[in-house]
Write a structure and sequence with these properties.
The protein has 472 residues and is an all-alpha fold. It contains 19 helices and no strands. The chain has two domains: 217 residues, no CATH class; 217 residues, no CATH class.
Length: 472
Amino acid sequence: MRSVSRAEERRRGGSGPGLRAELSATLALAAPLAAGNLAQMAMSVTTTVMVGRLGGMPLAAVGLGGMLYFTGGIMLQGVLFAVSPLAAHALGAGDRGGAGRIAGAGLALAMMLALPFTAALAMVDHVLQALGYDAALAAEIGRYLRAAVWGVPAFLSYAVLRSVLAALSHTRSIMTVHVLCLAGHAVLSWALIFGHLGAPVLGVTGSGYASAATQWLTLGGLGLCVLLMPGLRGLHLLRAAFAASRNEIGRILRLGVPIGGMRGIETGLFMTTGVLMGLLGASALAAHQLVLNCAGVTFMVPLGLANAATVRVALQLGADRAAAARRAGFLALALGIAFMSATAIVLWTVPGAIIGLYINASDPANRAIVATARRLFALAALFQVFDGVQVIAAGALRGHKDAMVPLLLATIGYWGVGFAGGWLLAFPLGYGAVGLWWGLALGLAAVAVLLTLRLNWIAQPSTDMVAAVALH
């Protein structure tokens, strides 16, 4: 009788919250997540400002070392973020035990992934020297990374606890922990880099230790939330981690590997664009970093909406409400389009004021940077909406447990359209920095369109395919 009623509910389009209730639920999830994302970005800015006082080589070492850490770590975190839709599906179906088992398996997998990643980071300086890097710079990068790697287990485990808390709609605790740890990170960096509060002067190494300590503080904060909140203690995450089964780990890997791959190809496109930008000169690279940093700040809001879309879609599908899942996904898209349209207007109309926040725009030495940055801000305004749409559509598709096809579509869009188009415009056709950013805009637009079409197809509540996905 239960299976008949579920089939009938899907045929009618499902029940679930109305539009106003869905809007409230989505914003309640997304706003704290976006604030937490911004706090994480502020930590990076804090590190950059403090290390910058040590000179050019330390800043370059932490910048490149941090980029390598982030690129690899973000892919591995992407694998572990599969815990969010899987746990939300279980919760939507009323299976809290299943959600706890998935989370425990995620923690076990995080420890498995931490060891090879730590070993790889510890060897980076040797690889860079073999590639021809300056020995002094490679050594600085090595010192930073060998200190920072102490935080790798916490960095990966954090992704699991964050996913669990998001699936349970406890995103305010995530925001609170990040805001508190931002202050802790600033104090630790100040003390360990410059030798305050009785600490030795450690410079670049101190920055790495401060980063590692912050990762453990963040994990500890989220762990306390899980232990102290009455509704969460029953998940028994540590017990589930030690009893993790191959089946649960396999479920995470099947969904998570494509998610991590998709995050990697997107991050890789921007990283490669930065490398190519360096071939065009210091002014072009500086303008690129300036505008990209600003665009990264605005991106934190649709990123939060994407995480919320994953949870809301998965919860509705877990409860067999396909139409409600479709509504949740497209409502998050509408919110992202509205926000990114507003930021596009700002970037288009006041680029000079934004540039002035970063550099002295009246200094003749910065004239080339300002001129290039103005052109890049126009393109950043152009791709704001596409950037928001692609990440939110990907998040909604994760709620449908759909990751492999989006990975293929993103590969085509980012590299087949974005990278190829940017390289062609920048070098053979001679458009330089503007050509590379046209490539980014075209790549993001292609992925946004492809993923939205995929979401529209897979979220049709009247198809048998959606019923199968919801019950997978």
